[in-house]
Amino acid sequence: FDPVVAMGLLQKIVRNEATKSDPPEIYNARVVLISLVACGGALLFGMDMGIIGGVLTMDSFKKEYGLMDQPKAVLASLEGNVVSVIQAGAFAGALLSMWLANRVGRRFSLIIASILVFVGVALQAAASGHIEAMYVGRLVAGVAIGIASSVNPLYVSENAPRGIRGLLTGLYQLSIVTGLTLAFWINYGSLLHIKGHSQYIIPLSLQAFPAVILLVGMLLANESPRFLAQRHPDKALAVLAKLRNLPADHPYIVQEMDGISRQLEEERALAVNASSFSLLREAFTVKSYRRRSLLCITLMMWSNLTGTNAMTYYSPRIFASVGLSGSASGLFATGVYGIVKMVSCAIFIVFVTDTLGRRKSLLWTGIVQGLALFYVGFYIRFDPPVTGESVSAPGYVALVAIYIFAAVSDGLSIMTETDLLQFGWGPVVWTYSSEIPPARLRALMMGMATASQWLFNFVVAKATPSMFATLGTNGFGTYFVYGTFCFIMVVFAFFFVPETAGVALEQMDELFEKDSLRDKLLFRKGPRLSSRENAADEGVLDKKNAEHVEVA
């Protein structure tokens, strides 16, 4: 591995001052490999989302579980239960992770998650027609996914060098859509080439594949230097030096370790005399904090009400509703759907160079999503596909609309010369929720945001099958419901979401304390802080030597 060659390639992809000024040794294969392995948790999440929707359409699964002759409403309710129970587990896992990650560490939390996956997948594969066992298996796997979804980004960000933190964190989103794509094609291949019970058992069993990567990788990987610094600073220094491929006494290592130590001291000072109840009360009684708490919760709600997870969980049914009859055609279309999501994500990560900011991204992606869903709804309502006939020209336009929806809704994170770029309601709400809380309440507000995300993910997964069964022919009303939510959230973002890209973290209080009616409605942009000043204030670099790092 030649660090000089790697740096040349890196500087073409990630163009910021940090990658130009940092020692080339810190951008090495080890840190990239650790990030990829840790993202096994994201791969797991993506594979589960993709596999279960396809399995539910297989006749072999329906026969095994006695679903072939069930009324439409009963079948829709059962499908909703099977899909949504994993979100219930993830909700519990996300709450558990807040304690677990600080108690046993990021690395061991991911090991626990991978072991829980094996248990959950084994129960699902061995259920043999017992729907209760399927529920329990998916609940256990959901707890694992909830833990991994919270700990994965944390572990990656704490191991990554500052210059490529955005890029490596973006691998989490890319891993989710990669898992989705793998799952879609696994379902398609299984339907074509496997008969009998194995047709659905093999896809369910393959959900354990990412857990194998995660378990083996975490057994060989290091703990996060930041977590080690809380109890074992000497070990933290050794791990950091190994990660950065530099001697422990190198100025860069000393400087980064000092920054970690100062940040930990500040957090300890903030935690004095702060009970959970007092922090919760503070989050909702102080005006500025209340606005931020409610934004963290509501943005996660809106991100689910876009319908993107509904489109993913039930994509075979969605493609059937626009005229792709037959399980094979539907699963093939979902495979293409996954490829669109994965390729668009990768293209943006590598090539996009213009910044939109948080607010503009929420606005334009919401509009595109709403228009795409409304077109599909109008097509199904006024020119519905006819079983046995080929897809009409408007039907192909509806397919394109679904793929456009996939391309803009998935979201991603990109590091450029000026900022950490965010596109779509997926990653933007996570970045936004992590940067607007005051330091004293950051863990609490992020916990509420994560819980809100999984709660409404559960609601969407549970409700969507019933919506398809009851809201018009082929469920055309479902698209109008989610499309309307997209337009409502655009209005919400326009009036209540201020732009925070480049705003000084210490100026967030001022941004959220505006009193005039115009300011309350429009949230005029607050003072901005250059990335150079932000780097120094965070203790990553000395004031006089501060170079560009992520502001997000």
From TrEMBL:
Keywords: Glycoprotein, Membrane, Transmembrane, Transmembrane helix, Transport. It is a multi-pass membrane protein. The chain crosses the membrane at residues 31-58, 78-101, 108-127, 133-155, 167-188, 200-221, 294-314, 326-350, 362-382, 394-415, 441-459, 479-498. One of its GO terms (cellular component) is membrane. Pfam families: Sugar_tr. Belongs to the major facilitator superfamily. Sugar transporter (TC 2.A.1.1) family. This is Major facilitator superfamily (MFS) profile domain-containing protein. It comes from Colletotrichum noveboracense. The lineage of its organism: Eukaryota, Fungi, Dikarya, Ascomycota, Pezizomycotina.
